[in-house]
Design a protein that fits this description.
- The protein folds into 3 domains: 29-177, no CATH class; 211-246, no CATH class; 251-372, CBS-domain.
- Helices cover 48% and strands 6% of the residues.
- It has helices at residues 29-54, 66-76, 85-105, 109-126, 133-143, 146-151, 156-177, 209-219, 227-246, 251-254, 268-278, 298-301, 328-331, 354-366, and strands at residues 262-263, 283-286, 292-296, 317-318, 338-342, 348-353.
- β5 (338-342) and β6 form a beta hairpin.
Length: 381
């Protein structure tokens, strides 16, 4: 009997070698090519700058080998806690200082190399500057040869610290030009904007930080990612799973289409009048070309003077084709009462309020399909 190939395989298909599969999540070819370009520029310019500073002194190394390993982290995985500025500068410098000290005190080289790396790990852990190339910096300080020995206790600072500082500075510039975030800032945890003792809505159900800590403890692994990033990733996974399950409902299906708007030159009194007349909490504000400029609500209008300008705030927006479920994080953040729906020309075509989304969720739990949607009465009621 001939066994057909699995659904993901076709005749003549050769499975990919796992050896060449990306190890890290998000490790796309584009990201790796950007990392290669960054390393090329970063290492070359670090050498050029150090050469300009130090001159052609053959007795002094212009750039140390661990900087190459630092470049891998800095340009290939810039979000890693091990690749942050303090990790690179502090980890390399502190480790090199440990290595020089051990080499000075311990004459047995075999014992010295082990002690240097072990103590470097301990020192980096205590100073929150853990950086794998730091182990190489400590080792280089012990076995680096005559040039390192002559530099003595200057070696951790010249060239190690200077190399690290220049590389980090170049990395910041490169990532900014490449529109990548560096230094990495963990996603902000949800907060209760009402300043009460209750946890924010997003944290009242589902997992919490204690669950994350318990899961990490049960895995018995040290992960190269912060708890804040794990929290943000898991919440995004929850949202994507919900979109996959309920993603047939689009913003166009549930949005209110008869939108009350105001021009940007309207008075606060007139905006307040419209909010109360239509019993809504958010008004889109349009510029002279009838494009969205922002929103205004009763919260922004509180305390405004009669002759003052309209207090416009940035609007939360979406497209008609976006999944309606995808608006959940914004409409439950405690600040956003409505999301303005824009077409491709940035013109307002609808608005979805917390009421609209809540009514839709309640209906879709029992009846699937956009044809049986219960609409709210719009604009953040």
């Amino acid at each position: 009997m001939i066994v057909p190939p699995p659904p993901h395989q076709k005749s003549g298909y050769l499975p990919k070698f796992k050896l060449f599969s990306p190890i890290l999540a998000g490790a796309t070819l584009k990201e790796r090519l950007i990392g290669c370009l960054g390393a090329l520029i970063g290492i070359c310019l670090t050498g050029v700058v150090c050469g300009f500073i130090f001159g052609d002194d053959p007795q002094l190394p212009l750039i140390v080998a661990p900087i190459g390993a630092s470049a891998v982290l800095l340009f290939a995985v810039p979000a890693s806690p091990l690749a942050q500025p303090w990790s690179i500068v502090g980890g390399n410098t502190i480790s090199a200082l440990i290595g020089v000290t051990v080499a000075y005190l311990v004459k047995d080289q075999m014992l010295a190399i082990g002690l240097a790396v072990a103590l470097a790990i301990l020192a980096m852990s205590l100073t929150r500057s853990l950086h794998p190339p730091g182990g190489a910096s400590a080792l280089t300080a012990v076995i680096g040869g005559a040039a390192v020995a002559r530099a003595g206790f200057w070696f951790p600072f010249i060239p190690v610290a200077i190399n690290s500082l220049i590389l980090v500075g170049l990395g910041m510039v490169f990532h900014r030009l490449a529109r990548r975030q560096y230094p990495h800032r963990p996603a902000a945890a949800p907060v209760n904007t009402h300043k009460t003792a209750d946890p924010p809505p997003a944290l009242r159900v589902g997992f919490n930080s204690e669950d994350i800590d318990e899961a990490i403890a049960r895995l018995n692994e040290t992960l190269d990612v912060s708890r804040e990033d794990i929290d943000a990733l898991l919440r995004e996974v929850e949202l994507q799973a919900l979109i996959r399950q309920r993603g047939e409902l689009t913003c166009a299906d549930i949005m209110s289409r008869d939108v009350v708007t105001v021009p940007s030159d309207t008075t606060p009194d007139h905006a307040r009048y419209l909010l109360l007349k239509h019993d809504v909490r958010t008004l889109p504000v349009l510029d002279e070309n009838e494009k969205l400029q922002g929103t205004v609500g009763l919260r922004e209008l509180a305390g405004t003077e009669v002759d003052s300008k309209l207090p416009i705030t940035a609007a939360a927006t979406a497209k008609p084709s976006d999944p309606a479920i995808g608006l959940l994080p914004r409409l439950t953040d405690g600040k956003t009462h409505a999301v303005v729906i824009l077409d491709d020309d940035a013109k307002v075509v609808g608005i979805i309020s917390q009421t609209d989304l809540l009514a839709t969720l309640a209906k879709s739990l029992s009846q699937n399909g956009p044809s049986e949607i219960m609409h709210g009465n719009g604009q953040g009621i």
